Structures are given as C-alpha cells and as structure tokens.
C-alpha cells in the first residue's frame, strides 16, 4: 500500500475548522499536546477509495506571525512536518479576512485546498460567490462546504487526493507583489539569501526575505544562529527599507506588506467573485447584541446566565455526584470486607479509594459545567461577556475573558477551581491568562464552602448569611488585588491587545459540544488516576504513620475491655446483638480518643506541632494546623480532619453541626484566631487537584509558584490579621 | 472629516485613513483587516463605553479605545 497522504487542516478561529475536522475524521480523532506547550494537537485519519489520509488539526489563527503560541505552532507544523496538502477552511461570510491566512500559506508554498465554509449563511445574506472563478484566480481548488451538516466533506477530500497527485508533493510558493517600494528590496535580499545558502535547506529564500521585513522574531533568531554575517547584512537592508517606507508612506515594512496582501485579495474578489450583500449591513447577531450587550440589560442578562449555569451545575450535578460517591463508598465497603484488617486495608480503603473517590466525585460537575461552557462558547456568548467585562477587569491587569474562569472557580460559592483553571484556555492572551489561573483558586470553591459553613456555624451563628457573603466578597477582592500585584511583578507586561472578533451567534452542534466536553473530562480523569493517586497515598501515609506505640494501643484496648465489661454488667438482660450495639456506642469515646492520639502521633500531627512556633504568629489552634495540612489533598478534608482532631470520630462533612458546637466551646478560637484562619483558608495553597490542573495548563514552574506563593501570601495576611485584630481584642 | 476612531459615534460610518500602531498591536489590528481603505461602521459600545464594536468586511470586530486611538478615520 502507498504511504498515506499527510494533510494539515488550517483556518481562522470560528471558521468551523474543528467541525469539519471532526466530520472528516469521524471518531478517529485523538487529542495530544504539542510538546512543551498546552496547545492541543488533534490527529485523525480518513480512508476513501484505497487512499489513506492522515490529518492533523492546526490551532485556529488569524495570521502566521510569530506572536502567539498558536501561530507559531500552525506555522511550524507546515514548515517542519512538510505536509503533502494543506486544507484551509474559510469563513465565507468574512471572505477577505479569511483569505488573509490562506494567502500566507500560499506564500510558504504548501499545496492547498480551500474549503469555503458557511455557504448556507452566505446564501441567507443574499450573497452569491463564484466559486469556480475564485479557484481559477487563486490557482487552488475551492470546495463549497457547510461543515455543520458535513456537506462538502467528500468533495474536499477528493480535491485533496487530486491536488496530491497533481503536485506530487512539490511546493510552489506564490509570488505576490508588495509594491514598488519593497519589491526591489525583496529581490535584493532573496539574492543575498540564495547566494549564501542562508536557511535555504528548509525555507524558501523569498519567504525568508519577507519574514525579515516583517521583523519576524523566530526567523531572525534562527538566521542569527545559522550565519551571523548574513543576518547582519539582511538586517541592515531591512533598516534601510524601513527608513524608506517610513519616509514615503509613513508606515513600517510589515504594515506595507499587510496592505499589499489585502490589496491582492481585494483585487481577486473584485473580479466578479462576490455579488450582492453589503459588508456593513447589520446582521441578525448585531441586532440581537443591541439587547445582549445593552448598557443595563447586558449586565443583567450576563448575571442571570452565570447564575443559571451555576444552579444547573450544582443542582443537577448533585445527583450523579452522589452516585459516584456511593459507588466509591461501596468499593470502600467491599475493600473493608475482603481485605483483612491492617495496614493494607487502611491503604486501599482510606488512602486509595478515599483519595481518588473524592476527586472522581467532581467528574459529573466538571462534565455539566464544561458542556454548558462549550455551548456558550460555541454559541458566541462568551465573546460578548469578554466584551462587556473587559473595561473593569483591565484595571486589575486581567482580560474580559477572565470572568468565566473566576466564576467557575467559586466566584459564586460552590464552584471548583479545577474546571475554572481549565476554562482559562479560552483566554488568548498569555499574561492575563496566567494571572487568572494563579488567582482563581482563591475563590470559594465547593469544598471550601463546606469548611466555611462549619466554621461560620460555630463562630457566627447569629448572622451566617452576612458572614458567608463577606467571605465571598473578600475572595473577589483578593483575586483582583493579587492579579494586579502579579501583573506588576512576576507576570509583568503590557496588556495584550483586545482586538477580537465578535462571531455571529451560531447554534452549536450537539456532537461538537459532546466531543469537546468528553475530551476535557477524560483528561481530568486521567490525572486522577496518576498524580492524584500518588498524592492521596502520600497524604494518607503522613496522617497514619508512625502508628501509636504498642503499649499506648494496649492502654486503649484495656479501656475498651473495661467499657465492654461495664456494659455487660449494666445490662444483664440484653441479648447478644443488643449488647454488641451498646458496647459499640459506649466504646466510641475511647475510639475517638485513640484516633486523636494517633493523629497527634503521626507525621502529620508532628509537623503541625513542629510548625506551631511559626503558626502561633497567626494564632492557629493546633487542630487547624493539621486540618489545613490535610486539606491540601482536598479541601473537604479540613472538616473531617478537624473532626478527628476534636476526637469526634466520623463526621459527615455535609452535616458538621456538632463539630461546630465543639469548636465554639474551645477557648483557643479567639476572634483574631478565627479571622486569621478564615483568611488563611481562603488564600493558602490550592488543593492538589488544582495544582495538577495548573501544572497542566501552564507548567510545573508556575504550579510550584502557586503552591509556595499562595502559602506565603496567605500566611502573611493571616499573621497581619491576627496581630492587628489582637490589638483591638 | 478625519478623526480618531475613538471619537466616532454609534452607527457612524467611516473609511480607514491610517493605522499608526506598530509591533504586536499593529500586527493584530492589520491581521484583522483594518488597513487603510477599509470601510467600517461603529455598531456598538460596551456598557462602560469601552471597548467598541465595528462592522467591517462582513464581520464584527471589537477593540479597546486605547487601540482605537491609533486608527485615523475619514468619517462619511
């Protein structure tokens, strides 16, 4: 069999590229990552008439400069992997802008097939396109498509096979004119490049010349590494050219090049390709936006949508979440029943099943949340939210698109930072995205909510609502302030230009939403099986070992015997079953004491004792120390560890009332200490699942920064609060 | 009448005269098709009057006022 045809699918954002990719590859698409960065790499295959076609989906970009990760990836796949054919999907409703990218691919020289998508919308707008003529003028096959319904898929692939046969894999860059000012310069530079054999092993000489004039960072760095003297010469010519264009047309060479590219496209389209329509006509979407982004109605609608999303996620998600939890509870019971009591049982039941179960319990929430997020994103609503919120968030060094991750993470209490951090992918500006990811975990996620509910019930029983509201407001305040601080320091830099397309509203396809959602959820589940499993085991070990010395255990055992004997003596008439029940009841106190002693004796307990000289500055009671340590695994653990520390035995995190009473009675919890723990709880290290998500969305360097940075910041704030509040107490 | 894009009113039409932004911002503005000669119409402003939404070349684009400052328009 002949070797497969290698095809890259390219296109601008919102052009329906992914929809077409999925339509072509069916269920065969596989997600991966480009090495070292978080841009997804989608691959799939297609078979027809005995030909095997391998496709790779390039990230959606408007251009092929080297400013963003996506653009670099798209370009480098073409340059380095040298695909046989490039499919370029075109949003036919914005033909000129879409062709701008296509022309840049043609400048590189890759054999191309144009997929003219959204032809149904074009017709609805009363526009007719002369597809055949467009193909003839551009010199590439053009296939009209409606990707949403899979129309044009076969024709597109047939064109790919035909193009492959005709070109035989030979690349032929088109030669555009960039005007009388630059054309001679480009010719001169091309000569220099050809003579010196500068980068010519992999690049077209004329293309390199153009990139130099566009002062393309990547090519210039590459050039400098290859031959510094030639690079010097080229850069000198560029400076000369820039002086010239600045003087004659008050523009830089890259601006002139862009003008001529658009000029070329316009020249082609003016030859009777487009008839009818008005490019400035308000579309249905624009009319709808008069309401959706209206001064007053806009924010009201936005808040309602966010609130509704939240309600749906957490009310609907509670059912499957309950099932998953029940499933793990059943597994835990099975483990208890089948594995003999001892270390192995404890490891499997408490460590592995408990730890992974806590994480998997979030899967249904993530599923629902992502499904809605993908829906709103594909619909085009998220672009409107960014548009409305940008002015406010910019003050704090964030971006309009930061709203969603912040809300998801618990901007309305009960969210979860894991999907929150993941949803920050929609941000196209790297600095704002990083600041969002690092601060989003401050929000009051569902797990923190349980802890706060317990603490609030203990210390502010008169006005719990106000207390909770205050906590949430503080979270927002800290997020915005810390973002501002980060953007002034470690994530310093100009805000990324907001220049953003507001795509028309388009009803997403069911398939698209499902595919996207499952993809994300699967990545999350995979993590739960690896890193989180390891950390769960570690946390379990820290809270379990070393075990109490044998004589201490024997002491508790003796107490238990005593209790048993006493119960038997007090109830001479009871049956054996009743007696067992009563004994269990009576021995609970002893069990709880033993649990508390074991916790204090463990590494975790010792660490919390050891750090007391430090944490005393913030006024933490020792029980809070160990609970906060345990809460790194998952913030819900705060409640259960507090329960163990206050020797309460098993406490249901959903109903921690009795624990609240114990806390309220403990004099160690003075008002300054309470406030200090409240603040620390809000700000300290994100839970391990979030840390893993951060690492995945950025890298381990930033995840580590998040761990220690948050810890330090939280501690400083807690100490400040404790010390200052102490002055007034 | 030439003016900065920032000064345009909603529903006003214009034609781009010059784009003076350079570097990344200039590149992004031009990539979207905001080059001299392009016809635009300002279709809306966000609730806090910034960013603005433009209709041009068959699609809708939004940009901040600080970016609009670099764009000179001949109002029609």
Automatic annotation (TrEMBL), chain A:
GTP binds at residues 11-18, 36-40, 57-60, 117-120. Belongs to the TRAFAC class TrmE-Era-EngA-EngB-Septin-like GTPase superfamily. FeoB GTPase (TC 9.A.8) family. InterPro entries: Fe2_transport_prot-B (IPR003373), Fe2_transport_prot_B_C (IPR011640), FeoB_Cyto (IPR041069), FeoB_GTPase (IPR050860), G_FEOB_dom (IPR030389), Gate_dom (IPR011642), GTP-bd (IPR006073), P-loop_NTPase (IPR027417). Keywords: Cell membrane, GTP-binding, Ion transport, Iron, Iron transport, Magnesium, Membrane, Metal-binding, Nucleotide-binding, Transmembrane, Transmembrane helix, Transport. This is Ferrous iron transport protein B. It comes from Solidesulfovibrio aerotolerans. The gene is feoB. The keyword Aminoacyl-tRNA synthetase does not apply. One of its GO terms (molecular function) is GTP binding. Mg(2+) 1 binds at residue 22. One of its GO terms (cellular component) is plasma membrane. Pfam families: FeoB_C (PF07664), FeoB_Cyto (PF17910), FeoB_N (PF02421), Gate (PF07670). Residues 4-166 form the FeoB-type G domain. Mg(2+) 2 binds at residues 23, 25-26. It is found in: Cell inner membrane; Cell membrane. It is a multi-pass membrane protein. Probable transporter of a GTP-driven Fe(2+) uptake system. The chain crosses the membrane at residues 296-316, 347-376, 396-422, 434-460, 466-486, 528-546, 669-695, 702-725.
TrEMBL record, chain B:
InterPro entries: Fe-transptr_FeoA-like, FeoA, FeoA_core_dom, Transcriptional_repressor_C. Pfam families: FeoA. Residues 3-75 form the Ferrous iron transporter FeoA-like domain. GO terms for molecular function: transition metal ion binding. The keyword Iron applies. Transmembrane segments: none annotated. Keywords: Iron. PANTHER family: FE(2+) TRANSPORT PROTEIN A. This is Iron transporter FeoA.
């Amino acid at each position: 069999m002949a070797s497969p045809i290698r095809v890259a699918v390219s296109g601008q954002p919102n052009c329906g590229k992914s929809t077409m990719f999925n339509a072509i590859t069916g269920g065969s698409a596989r997600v991966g990552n480009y090495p070292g960065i978080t841009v997804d790499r989608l691959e799939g295959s297609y078979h027809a008439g005995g030909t095997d076609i391998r496709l790779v989906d390039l990230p959606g970009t408007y251009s092929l400069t080297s400013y963003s990760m996506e653009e670099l990836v798209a370009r480098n796949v073409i340059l380095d992997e040298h695909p046989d054919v490039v499919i370029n999907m075109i949003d036919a409703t914005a033909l000129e802008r879409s062709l701008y990218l296509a022309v840049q691919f043609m400048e590189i020289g890759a054999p191309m097939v144009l997929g003219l998508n959204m032809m149904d919308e074009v017709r609805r707008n009363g526009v007719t396109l002369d597809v055949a003529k467009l193909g003839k003028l551009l010199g590439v096959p053009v296939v009209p498509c409606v990707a949403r319904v899979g129309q044009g898929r076969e024709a597109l692939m047939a064109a790919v096979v035909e193009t492959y046969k005709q070109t035989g894999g030979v690349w032929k860059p088109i030669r555009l004119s960039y005007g009388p000012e630059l054309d001679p310069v480009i010719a001169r530079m091309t000569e220099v490049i050809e003579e010196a054999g500068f980068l010519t092993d992999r690049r077209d000489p004329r293309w390199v010349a153009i990139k130099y004039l566009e002062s393309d960072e990547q090519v210039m760095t590459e050039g400098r590494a290859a031959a510094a003297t030639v690079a010097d010469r080229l850069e000198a010519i560029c400076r000369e050219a820039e002086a010239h264009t600045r003087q004659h047309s008050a523009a830089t060479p890259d601006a002139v090049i862009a003008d001529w590219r658009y000029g070329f496209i316009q020249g082609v389209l003016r030859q009777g390709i487009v008839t009818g329509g008005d490019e400035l006509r308000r579309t249905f979407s624009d009319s709808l936006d008069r309401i959706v982004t209206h001064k007053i109605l806009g924010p009201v609608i936005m808040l309602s949508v966010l609130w509704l999303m939240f309600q749906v996620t957490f009310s609907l998600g509670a059912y499957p979440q309950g099932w998953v939890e029940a499933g793990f509870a059943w597994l835990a019971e099975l483990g208890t029943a089948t594995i003999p009591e001892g270390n192995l049982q404890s490891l499997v039941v408490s460590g592995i099943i408990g730890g992974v179960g806590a994480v998997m319990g979030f899967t249904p929430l993530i599923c629902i949340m992502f499904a809605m997020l993908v829906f709103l994103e594909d619909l085009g609503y998220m672009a409107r939210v960014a548009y409305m919120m940008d002015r406010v968030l910019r003050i704090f060094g964030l971006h309009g698109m930061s709203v969603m991750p912040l809300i998801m993470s618990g901007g309305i209490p009960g969210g979860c930072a894991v999907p929150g951090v993941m949803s920050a992918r929609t941000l196209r500006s790297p600095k704002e995205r990083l600041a969002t990811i690092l601060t989003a975990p401050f929000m009051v996620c569902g797990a923190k909510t349980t802890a706060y509910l317990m603490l609030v019930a203990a210390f502010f029983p008169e006005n719990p609502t106000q207390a909770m509201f205050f906590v949430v407001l503080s979270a927002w305040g800290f997020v915005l302030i810390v973002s501002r601080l980060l953007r002034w320091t470690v994530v310093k830099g100009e805000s990324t230009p907001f220049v953003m397309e507001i795509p028309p509203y388009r009803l997403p396809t069911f398939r698209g939403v499902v595919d996207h959602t499952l993809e994300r959820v699967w990545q999350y589940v995979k993590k739960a099986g690896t890193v989180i499993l390891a950390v769960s085991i570690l946390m379990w070990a820290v809270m379990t070992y070393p075990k109490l010395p044998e004589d201490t255990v024997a002491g508790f055992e003796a107490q238990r015997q005593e209790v048993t004997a006493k119960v038997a003596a007090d109830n001479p008439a009871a049956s054996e079953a009743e007696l067992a029940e009563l004994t269990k009841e009576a021995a609970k106190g002893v069990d709880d004491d033993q649990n508390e002693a074991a916790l204090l004796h463990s590494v975790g307990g010792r660490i919390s004792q050891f750090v007391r000289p430090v944490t005393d500055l913030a006024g933490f009671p020792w029980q809070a120390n160990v609970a906060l340590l345990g809460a790194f695994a998952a913030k819900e653990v705060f409640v259960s560890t507090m329960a163990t520390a206050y020797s309460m035995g098993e406490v249901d995190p959903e109903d921690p009332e009795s624990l609240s009473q114990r806390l309220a009675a403990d004099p160690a919890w003075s008002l300054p200490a309470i406030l200090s723990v409240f603040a620390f709880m809000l700000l300290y290290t994100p839970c391990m699942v979030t840390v893993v998500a951060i690492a995945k969305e950025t890298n381990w360097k930033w995840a580590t920064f998040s761990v220690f940075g948050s810890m330090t910041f939280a501690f400083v704030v807690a100490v400040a609060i404790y010390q200052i509040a102490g002055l007034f107490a | 009448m030439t003016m900065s894009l920032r000064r345009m009113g909603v529903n006003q039409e214009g034609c781009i005269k010059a784009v003076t932004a350079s570097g990344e911002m200039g590149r992004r503005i031009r990539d979207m098709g905001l080059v001299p000669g392009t016809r635009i119409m300002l279709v809306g402003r966000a609730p806090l009057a910034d960013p603005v939404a433009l209709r041009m070349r068959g699609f809708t684009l939004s940009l901040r006022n600080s970016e609009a400052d670099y764009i000179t328009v001949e109002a029609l």
